[in-house]
Amino acid sequence: KSKWSQLTACPDGEKAWPKKYPFCGGVFQSPIDFHKDILQYDSNLLPLEFIGYNVPSTDHFTLTNNGHSVKMYLSPTMCIRNLPFEYTASQLHLHWGNRNKSEGSEHTVSGKHFAAELHVVHYNSEKYPDITAAMDKADGLAVLAVLLEIGPFNPSYEKIFRHFRNVKYKGEWLALYFPGFNIQELLPDRLDEYYRYEGSLTTPPCYPSVLWTVFRHPVKISQEQLLALETAMYCTESDDPEPLEMVDNFRNVQEFHERLVFISFRE
Ligand SMILES: NS(=O)(=O)c1c(F)c(F)c(S(=O)(=O)CCO)c(N[C@H]2CCCc3ccccc32)c1F
Ligand SMILES: [Zn+2]
What we know:
- The protein is mainly beta.
- It is about 10% helix and about 30% strand.
- It has helices spanning about 15-20, 130-135, 155-160, 225-230, and strands at about 10, 35, 40, 50, 55, 60-65, 70-75, 80, 85-95, 110, 110-115, 115-125, 140-150, 175, 180, 195-200, 210-215, 220, 245, 260-265.
- The radius of gyration is 18 Å and the shape is globular.
- It starts with 7 loop residues before the first strand and ends with a strand.
- The ligand NS(=O)(=O)c1c(F)c(F)c(S(=O)(=O)CCO)c(N[C@H]2CCCc3ccccc32)c1F binds near residues 66, 90, 121, 201 and 203.
């Protein structure tokens, strides 16, 4: 191996998922491309209402690298109303590209990738005791998605990004106390404008159990913050002689047969 051995990405094998995880080859798969002939305005789509997102500094969050994303466990006091049920927060994580191609969002708009995408995963706490019971039920999960694009430095995102260098390797975790942090700071201003459709988890086991809310307006983070995200993590353990960079951890868009995406905004 040359001294400058080009770091390789994690083995993803998206094509092989359906063999081992049948739902991945099934219906209602996510992510998808939002393009105008599948969008339909729905006036019943209300702005989401967040309870407990302004987490007190006494709460702590756990950040961990699970080998294919970096995820932050959230406080069970955080939940969303104005969905068909009450959904309680479980974790947030991100998807991104690589330093040569910052187009790592999962959902696309008119065929265009954004730089990265934040997901805040919730489970239906009205019907199920925990996410494990909820995650394979049709009305089990609700994921909020924020499209990220390049712009000015984002101090709110920095509150989580700056800890990523401490969970560089698979299996590492960190308990964090944030001095009073409002998770809502990570969301765009216009919470009333979003895409809504029924889809799935975008990683195995790909259960078709997710009510997706993808906010219309992207949030900006700086080029440097994005580069840090694209170069900070590895999908291998710290003692692995062949380190693999955690990059391009987004699933490709899925076929969307005769279905509609409802939008809360008029074009
Ligand atoms: N894009 S996505 O579909 O939102 C999405 C991911 F992409 C993703 F990587 C994860 S994961 O990091 O937990 C690794 C996969 O289990 C999740 N986890 C969810 C669903 C699976 C089980 C579970 C259990 C506890 C908390 C969260 C979750 C995920 F929902
Ligand atoms: Zn995700």
